[in-house]
Amino acid sequence: MAKLILLCLKFVTLCGSIGAVFEDQVGKFDWRQQYVGKVRFSHFDTHVQSSKKVLVATENNVFAALNTRTGDLFWRHVDKTGPEGSIDALLQHGQDAVLVVGNGRLLRSWDINVGGLNWEIVLDSGSFQAACLSGQQDNVKHVAVLKKTVISLHYLSNGHQKWIENLPESETVDYQAVYSGGNGEVYALGVVPHSHIAIVVYSADDGEIIKQVSVEAPWLSNIQGSCAVISQGMLTCVDPAAVSLYMLDLHAESQMTQVPLQSLGLEVVPGFRPVLVSTQPNPAQQPLSEFFVQLGPENYVLLQLNNGQIVTLRDFKPVSNCYSIFNSLSCSVQILTIKIQTSYHIVIFAIQKCKGSNVNDACSINLFSAETGRRLLDTTMIYSLDPNVGKPEKLYVQAFLKKDDAVGYRVMVHSEDHALSFLQQPGRVMWTREEALSDVVTMEMVDLPLTGTQAELEGEFGKKAGKCQPRILLHFYDQSLLWINIQYFVYYFLPV
């Protein structure tokens, strides 16, 4: 009798720890895939050293945070389809991410830790042009939004509008860029094509116009594609026709200074339009004095503005076959910054060598010091191109300090087929997301051949209607066999 009671107790304990479904249900309804689509903007979360998030805003109107270790979603927000939900800009500071949505219709702030909405405001109508964070004394407090005819400043904490002002001569001037260098001023930069540049300086306190300047620039038609602000408010533009750089001090000068590239010992590849790129790691501080000029498909030069003079820090010589694989400046060479206490250590990300020109080949990636031009030790990464995905279109790179104060970096690769791959040193692919599946427009269901067990189960439940009694009896028979097997297992394999 005691033996029977122990057997019953073991059986009850066993049943209490088991959860099950019918075998024909396993694997058929147990998964759901969530995608983000083609990435338009991306930022690594660096406000916490241990953070493992990368933020992405996509052309599918999705804003999400990915786990850099696994590629899984921390959270995801899908906006309205079409232009109404299109993400125009993504700005990040600390744990706040600010999005401009719907051609400047909405301004939103998200908490990137949990993906919660901090605030949302509706902006005045008008075509969106640009946005930037604005700060003073190392504190970022505002968001500036530039439209065709107006410029507005909003508090970063709650989105409330601090001031809004009409842009002067907006009927003739095409305002394209907004800039803030951490000095309490906001700059609206516009251009009258092939005539002059219009610069309007606003006070961040009350929106009052501090200065309004027009500078002749008959060679310029587009600010965003030809100009960048470097160092202490130095607007620098490149003129392909004259093969020169033009520089304008936004604080003082009213005339641009021409610097021929030939005077710096630089030559542009015939037929190539030079590209200029600068970096501003902290919106409450001035941009870096280092900047890149791309002189050809495979030729990049790192320059520095030093005491009003441009000097060459490093010439990245042409690398055979690299351009056939990485065909953009954002892929091949980038300026990276690592924050050390209150200053920024500048390093250069560069693809140095590519073996062959096929997608099956590999490339050698390195980091260089911007100060000395030397390659940093133990930073070489061998990136083997995956033959199952498209050619890389853009690389998103994060540099960081390791525990031993050495420099490390991570790379997220965006391919032409929208796939995302994440690399860690020395070149290991951590994960890949096939984001092309987010654009599926049609689907066809295919029945695969059944296994023996699946065929038996389909035979049990696949009888025609009207023969209910045999099906019930067969089901009871299968359950009784399962019950007998459980009793056999408990009696013979569990200790008494």
TrEMBL record:
InterPro entries: Beta-prop_EMC1_1st (IPR058545), EMC1 (IPR026895), Quinoprotein_ADH-like_sf (IPR011047), WD40/YVTN_repeat-like_dom_sf (IPR015943). It is a single-pass type I membrane protein. SUPFAM superfamilies: Quinoprotein alcohol dehydrogenase-like. GO terms for biological process: protein folding in endoplasmic reticulum. Pfam families: Beta-prop_EMC1_N. Residues 20-435 form the EMC1 first beta-propeller domain. The keyword Disulfide bond applies. It is found in: Endoplasmic reticulum membrane. The keyword Transmembrane helix applies. GO terms for cellular component: EMC complex. Its main location: endoplasmic reticulum. Keywords: Disulfide bond, Endoplasmic reticulum, Glycoprotein, Membrane, Signal, Transmembrane, Transmembrane helix. Residues 1-20 form the signal peptide. Component of the ER membrane protein complex (EMC). Belongs to the EMC1 family. This is ER membrane protein complex subunit 1.
